[in-house]
C-alpha cells in the first residue's frame, strides 16, 4: 500500500460539517511522519480527555480515512479504502436516523452497533496503523454486502418454494375434486358422471355441450384426471360455478390461497 504521512491536523471539513472537532491545541500538534501512520498513543490519550461527543473515535477514523483515501494512487487500492470509509459513514447515517442513539446509549440495535464500531475504531487508532484501519472496516463492509446478497437470494428462494406449494395445493384440490366425481372409483369420469357432477356444483351443461367437449378433446366416452384438469381450466373462463370460482381464486389471488374443502357428492 502507498506510504502516506497522516495527521489529525487535516480534518475533512466537507465530511464532518458541524460535527465536534478536537480543540485547537490538539489540532495544532505537529504531524507524525512514517508509513501509514496514525496519531500517536499520547495524542490519542489527549483526545480522550477532550470535550467531544461519545462517537469521537469514529469521527477521527472517518477523518483519517477520508484524507488517506484521497492520497492513494490506483496501485494503492483506493477503492478498498473508500469501501472502509463508506461503511463507517453508512453506519453513522443509519444511527443518526434513530433518536434513541441520542437519548439512550445502547437503546437500539443500530445504536449498539455504532458504539461497538466506535470502540473498534478507538482500538485500531491505538495501533497506529492505517493498514489495520482500512483492512478491518473494508472487511466488515464486504461481510455486510455478502449477508445482504444472501438474504435477498434466500427471500427469492422462499418465494419460489411458496409458489411450488401453491401449485401443489391446486393439484391436490383438483385431484380430490376428481375423485369425488368418480363415483365408481375407476379413475375415469363417464360423460354422465361429468355432466351430473358439474350440475351439482352449479354449472349446468347440456348434452350438446358435453358432446362438443368430448369431440374437442377427442374423448372416447370417458374423461381422465388430466383431461378433467384441462376442462376445468377452460371452463373457468366464463363459468360462475364453484369449480370455476375456486380455479379463479387460485389463479388470480395467489397470496390468498388456502386449503378449500372439496364438496362431497352423493349419487
Automatic annotation (TrEMBL):
UniProt signal peptide: none
Domain (EF-hand): residue spans on this chain: 169-204
Taxonomic superkingdom: Eukaryota
Any one Gene Ontology molecular-function term assigned to this protein's record: calcium ion binding
Alphabetized InterPro entries for the sequence: EF-hand-dom_pair, EF_Hand_1_Ca_BS, EF_hand_dom
Keyword vocabulary terms for this entry: Calcium
UniProt key word Acetylation: no
Gene3D superfamilies: EF-hand
Name recorded for this polypeptide: Glycerol-3-phosphate dehydrogenase
